[in-house]
Amino acid sequence: MTTAGIFTILLLLVSNIFMTFAWYGNLKLQQMNISTSWPLILIILCSWGLAFFEYCAMIPANRIGSQINGGPFSLMQLKIIQEAISLIVFTGIVALVFKGEPIKWNHFVAFALIILAVFFAFLNTGENKPANDNTGVTATTENPQLPDSEAKL
Q: What is the C-alpha to C-alpha distance for residues 65 and 74, in angstroms, rounded to an integer?
């Protein structure tokens, strides 16, 4: 794997840690009786504050990792990697922070299917994709013959 690929995955890992705490950390604070009297708007603002740091890692990860910018991953691969990392991070945080939340056999089956999704996303199907020069026009290697009416223009 390239340095850009490793750096992308590390940034996605950091991003998903912040994302998980932004989305679910408020539940732990409530469970610990810290935020039980906080108004919902304050909880939302705190979550947005954490989400800022999520984006500070997610956006560079996507820019570094995307083939659009010379990175190793297609957009579909980036999204599937992000989802797999998201579940791994979420599972780890649930196991460490929310100790009463059981992980059952069907969760492991679901995770295995997501890992299969990553495998299939990276599977080389042998299909060649057409070159694109960012103008919105797809280049081809064919040289089609123009109809007589267009050839005279």
A: 8
- Least Cα distance to 74 among 85, 89, 62 occurs for 62
pTM, entire model? 0.72
pLDDT, one tens digit per residue, over 48-61 is 999 999 999 999 99
Q: What are the CA-CA distances from residue 73 to residues 1, 5, 61 (Å)?
A: 11, 8, 11
Residue in the structure block whose two tokens are 């990175």:
71
What span, in angstroms and rounded, lies between the C-alpha atoms of 86 and 20? 8
Query: How many other β-carbons are positioned within 10 Å of the β-carbon of residue 50?
Result: 17
Q: In whole angstroms, how far apart are CA 34 and each of 30, 38, 44, 114? A: 6, 8, 15, 35
Question: For residue 130, what are its two tokens?
Answer: 């057409």
The tens digit of pLDDT for each residue in 98-119 reads: 887 788 899 889 888 888 888 8
